[in-house]
């Protein structure tokens, strides 16, 4: 049983009914100042000058001169004598008890803990006459990764021979970084591609605007408006073009009208999770898109609510085969992967039946049930 806390012989519960404002009104100005010096308000928003209880009553002697103040402090420190020691310092003498470090524990391995491995005369002779490269190859095969670096390990697995200068006593160096050439800029001209889409050219089936910077809103509007009447374009790639929710809404309206587009790629843009849901929802109107990619947006985490909503929309889509989207929750990933595999199996079965029908129809042989 705990004892209740008390203050001046009374329980703290008895002070709850006291009116603090009434007590403060009975105090004089001097008593309030004394009380303010004893209390430090626990408020980080107050400046330190108001939280500090120090109150200097002296009049200022003049403006602050920092250099003169430092010189005065140094002078006072030099002129102030040191406090005398109770025992004078004598070099070489030890005051008090000298610290002696504890002895280090000696690792003794008992005979019954030692493991003796008898490999036989044949293996002992083979290991004793083996070269250093052969020992390294054997260590790589047995999986002793800590005994070698990556170059030695991969050279042993690929049977390329050990690199020169590297062995048990060699200096391990970092693998030289492979320099890959920069990816060339996208040669596509937005105005030219828009004109091809407007003309509805039969051979123009792949539009690639990936990595094209500073595409204006007007060009996106012209492209989406031209695609509404286009009947040949199948792949629409708009990755890393600065798409926002405004363009995503226009694209969603387009996907609800165009039934020839099969692949849509809007990765690495500025689309919010609600904009991604709007795009996936638009795929249910005509159900013609087979591949949709929208990963690496401004918001890396979609959230549980958005992922569940996307999962429900995907499960209603019978034609979507591939989805490029980062999902955090296992339930959403598993359900979407199962549904996409079911769509692929359905299309494969349908294609198999069509091929069988054409084959039997070509041979003019009736189908056997």
From TrEMBL:
SUPFAM superfamilies: RNI-like. It holds the Pfam family Tropomodulin. InterPro entries: LRR_dom_sf (IPR032675), TMOD (IPR004934). It is found in: Cytoplasm, Cytoskeleton. Keywords: Cytoplasm, Cytoskeleton. One of its GO terms (cellular component) is cytoskeleton. It comes from the Eukaryota. Gene3D superfamilies: Ribonuclease Inhibitor. The keyword Cytoplasm applies. This is Tropomodulin. It comes from Cryptolaemus montrouzieri.
């Amino acid at each position: 049983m705990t004892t209740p806390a008390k203050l001046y012989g009374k329980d703290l519960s008895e002070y709850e009914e006291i009116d603090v404002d009434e007590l403060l009104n009975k105090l004089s100005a001097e008593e309030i100042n004394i009380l303010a010096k004893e209390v430090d308000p626990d408020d980080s928003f107050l400046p330190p000058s108001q939280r500090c209880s120090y109150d200097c009553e002296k009049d200022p002697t003049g403006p602050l001169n920092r250099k003169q103040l430092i010189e005065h402090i140094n002078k006072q420190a030099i002129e102030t004598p040191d406090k005398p020691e109770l025992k004078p310092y004598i070099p070489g003498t030890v005051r008090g008890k000298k610290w002696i470090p504890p002895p280090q524990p000696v690792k003794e391995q008992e005979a019954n803990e030692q493991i003796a491995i008898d490999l036989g005369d044949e293996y002992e002779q083979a290991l004793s006459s083996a070269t250093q490269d052969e020992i390294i190859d054997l260590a790589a095969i047995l999986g002793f990764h800590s005994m070698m670096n990556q170059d030695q390990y991969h050279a042993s697995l690929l049977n390329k021979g050990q690199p020169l200068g590297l062995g048990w006593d060699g200096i391990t160096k970092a693998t030289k970084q492979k320099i890959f050439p920069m990816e060339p800029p996208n040669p596509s001209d937005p105005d030219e591609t828009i004109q091809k889409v407007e003309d509805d050219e039969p051979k123009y089936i792949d539009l690639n605007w990936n990595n094209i910077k500073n595409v204006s809103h007007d060009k996106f509007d012209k492209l989406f408006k031209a695609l509404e009447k286009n009947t040949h374009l199948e792949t629409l790639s708009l990755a890393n073009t600065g798409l926002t929710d405004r363009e995503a809404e226009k694209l969603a309206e387009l996907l609800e009208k165009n039934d020839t587009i099969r692949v849509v790629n809007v990765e690495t843009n500025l689309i919010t999770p609600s904009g991604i849901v709007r795009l996936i929802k638009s795929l249910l109107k005509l159900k013609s898109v087979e591949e949709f990619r929208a990963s690496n947006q401004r918001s890396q985490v979609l959230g549980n609510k958005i992922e569940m909503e996307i999962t429900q929309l995907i499960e209603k889509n019978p034609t979507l085969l591939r989805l490029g989207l980062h999902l955090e929750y296992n339930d959403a990933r598993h359900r979407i992967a199962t549904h996409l595999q079911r769509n692929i199996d359905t299309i494969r079965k349908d294609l198999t039946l069509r091929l069988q029908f054409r084959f039997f129809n070509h041979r003019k042989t009736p189908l056997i049930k």
